[in-house]
Amino acid sequence: MSDDLRGDVMLRVNGADRVLRVDNRVTLLDALREHLRLTGTKKGCDHGQCGACTVLLDGERANSCLLLAVTVDGRAVTTVEGLADGDDLHPLQRAFIAHDGFQCGYCTPGQICSAVGMLAEAADGLASWVSPDLTAAGDLDDEEIRERMSGNLCRCGAYPGIVAAVREVAER
């Protein structure tokens, strides 16, 4: 590989500054998995359609398979590995366990990261397509949760547990 295709990228990943020398064509997903060995973020469809690769980019949900690593230089990335505080799981991680919000677990990291971002969006008052009242967009019933999480697919069909887990944390 030619050196003119490589560049330095600085990312703040899970609270730590990391400098990577990567090919300009490397996706954020591949940089996380292959260069930083953060394998919680999964490669599902590699087309941004399944949500398995969802991470938080400056606190907002993002499909890491669609982003070139060089385009997120200087930004903060949170993966599922960065949600827990040591051995203390994030409330959504605990709720997914309590409500059986997974079966095979492949989509779970993306589901959890997406739920963290989605709850922040709702708390900020952002409406979804099914929000009946645009001034009360933070109210999350099951229909709202399903709509807001619709970019994350679960091939096992663990949706009832996923919705219950998100609802539990949203109600706190």
UniProtKB/TrEMBL annotation:
InterPro entries: 2Fe-2S-bd, 2Fe-2S-bd_dom_sf, 2Fe-2S_ferredoxin-like_sf, 2Fe-2S_ferredoxin-type, 2Fe2S_fd_BS, Aldehyde_Oxdr_Iron-Sulfur, Beta-grasp_dom_sf. It holds the Pfam family Fer2. It comes from the Bacteria. Keywords: Iron, Metal-binding, Oxidoreductase. Transmembrane segments: none annotated. SUPFAM superfamilies: 2Fe-2S ferredoxin-like (SSF54292), CO dehydrogenase ISP C-domain like (SSF47741). Residues 7-83 form the 2Fe-2S ferredoxin-type domain. This is Aldehyde dehydrogenase iron-sulfur subunit. It comes from Asanoa siamensis. The lineage of its organism: Bacteria, Bacillati, Actinomycetota, Actinomycetes, Micromonosporales.
